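To: structure subgroup
Subject: Chain for Friday's discussion

All,

I'm putting the inputs and outputs inline so they're searchable in the archive.
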Amino acid sequence: MNAVISPNSVANPMINEHQDPSFAELNLSKQYPTPPLESVTSFAALKGRIRHHYELASEYYYSLWGEHLHHGYFLHPADTKERAQTRLIELLLHRARLKKGSNVLDVGCGMGGTSRYLAKHHGCNVTGVTISGKQVEMAVRLTMDEAGVDVTNNVAGDPMKLAAGSARFIELDAEELGQHFPEPGTIDCVWISEAMSHLPDKKLFFQNAARLLTTNGKLVIADWFKAEDLTLAQFEADIKPIEGRFQQCSLKSPPQLADSCKTGCFSLLSAPKRNTHNSGKKSASKYFPKVWISARMSPRPALWAFAFSQGRDGIAFLQAFLAMRRGYANGAFRYAVMVFQKPVKD
């Protein structure tokens, strides 16, 4: 049986204005012209745009979605987004066979939701890294609130105790892990959720992760991907708008990323597990009665106004969510989780 990895943004492939009362509100996007695709002159410029976006938008995103900015694993029609999001973490824990009390590096940690969950519910000692100083500030504040400690007593980067585990947060470019963590073999798990697609130099990231991991250490990946074997027309219609407007590097298919990781420093522990599409065997849409992008984000006039106030990148970023919604619906855009392991040296 194919399991369904449900982004809480996945739309029903059959959705239309008669079936979804929020559909008409999506036309709000037409009030704002879609900015043309803008090339990025360097990886540094791309990272600067990503950092700038999250510096501006993170507080607003928290008001919309809470502490978890990642997708959810929906199994039941009544699932809330919060339950689906924590279930995705639990799925990754299960597939990674991660031991309680492990040392975890949470790359692209956002506001620290996953880091706190791993610390509180799995006893892990977690270091969360994000390119955004604003997100570090928010992660520390939320963690201190949960721990019941005065945030003014925290020194940047200090671990904060949560149940049997701990969490700390650092502002860091994910491709600079090698410089910041000089001691090899000290991490049991590198966890990266919906941040891999932002990284220009994935080979460097894999090398740094392998150096930091203990023998048999785990690399856990959850991210969005393009489907395999897309035609040029499908790519131009459904993937290019996401790459160009969502601060993404070139999207890979799940097998492409798995192959590049395996040919580098890792062996495959848990094969890519993907959301299915309405292909005749099992329709993923039955698991997704709630449409995250259309119902929780795109229709909101305040959000479009916020994006408009941020200029070209704000509108482009939000327009990309509509492209994601369309891509999920027609199968061109996918979500997958996979786990790799650092093998024992011969």
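Points worth raising on Friday:
Confidence is low (pLDDT under 50) at residues 1-28, 277-299.
The longest helix spans residues 43-65.

D.
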